[in-house]
Amino acid sequence: MDIADFLNQLWLARTPLLKGLGMTVSISFLSIAVGTALGVFVGLALTYGYRPMRWLVRGYTDFIRGTPVLVLVLASYYVLSTIGVDLGPFEAGILALSLFCSSHVGELVRGALQSLPGGQTEAAKAIGLSFAQTFAYVLGPQALRRALPAWVNTAAEMVKASTLLSIIGVSELLLRTQEVISRTFLSLEFYFFAGFLYFAINYGIERFGRYVERKTALPA
Fold first, then answer.
1. Where are the beta strands (DSSP E) in the chain?
2. What are phi and psi of 33, to 5 degrees?
3. Measured distance CA(15)–CA(204) in Å, rounded
4. What is the per-residue pLDDT for 132?
5. Rounded to an integer, what distance in angstroms lies between the CA atom of residue 19 and that of residue 173?
6. How many angstroms separate the CA atoms of 2 and 115, rounded?
7. What is the reported pLDDT for 197?
8. Angstrom distance (rounded) from CA 199 to CA 176
9. Measured CA distances, 166 to 44, 54, 135 (Å)
10. If DSSP states are collapsed to H, E and C, what string results for 193-205?
11. Are 115 and 105 in contact (CB under 8 A)?
């Protein structure tokens, strides 16, 4: 491998690669944020919802979790258009990844909430707290500490799943890298470089998770 040639080609390809990196970060951030917000409501419905609601939400989570991400991406882009819902590649990709993320986060929230002692909810009711206040001040912070490590893994999976959006034409990092490789024929070098960038994104997520974990840790 000629390092000087690779560095020269890397410099020439800096603009498309930076655009692809920015697209990947945007996709990852939006899908994680929307998926997490929706997943909290899914987890609450699974834990505290009425029986018909729990059945409905359980069916949703089992279906989404059992469907490959690629199928969700293709369905969001192609199938929805057949029923009059025309989404662009970016919007369809965000929808698919957010749904997949929400099903996993919902299970994390459910497991974390159900692991808490039931007496805490009863005590909160006894002092007059509403359900929203009970979740915000009593259950939520404890569930966050328990679900956080698994949430970091789910967020990292969303970053890796963003590569599938190249199938529907989203110009994220992998597609941009493949375009550069088709011009330079330096496949190994640019794939290694793209892998490093994906690692950097996931490392940032892991450090963020550690930061939140320290901030929410109980005093010794």
1. none
2. -65, -50
3. 22
4. 85
5. 8
6. 55
7. 96
8. 17
9. 34, 35, 39
10. HHHHHHHHHHHHH
11. no
DSSP structure string for 19-35: HHHHHHHHHHHHHHHHH
Q: CA separation (Å) from 76 to 36, 67, 109, 136?
A: 19, 13, 25, 33
Question: Looking at domain 22-170, which of 1.10.3720.10, 3.40.50.620, 3.40.50.720, 1.20.120.80 is its CATH number?
Answer: 1.10.3720.10
pLDDT at 82: 86
Angle between helices 14-48 and 89-114 (to 10 degrees): 40
How far, in Å, CA of 37 to CA of 98, rounded? 9
Q: Which two tokens stand for residue 110?
A: 């459910």
Decide: 20 and 170 in contact? Cβ < 8 Å. Answer: no
**Which pLDDT tens digit goes with each residue over 106-134?**
999 999 998 888 788 888 888 888 888 88
pLDDT digits (tens, 9 = 90+) for 135-172: 888 888 888 888 988 999 999 999 999 999 999 999 99
Structural domain spans, the chain: 22-170
Other Cβ atoms closer than 10 A to 60 = 17
Arithmetic mean of pLDDT over the chain:
91
Instruction: Please give the Cα distance from 15 to 199 (Å, whole number).
Output: 20
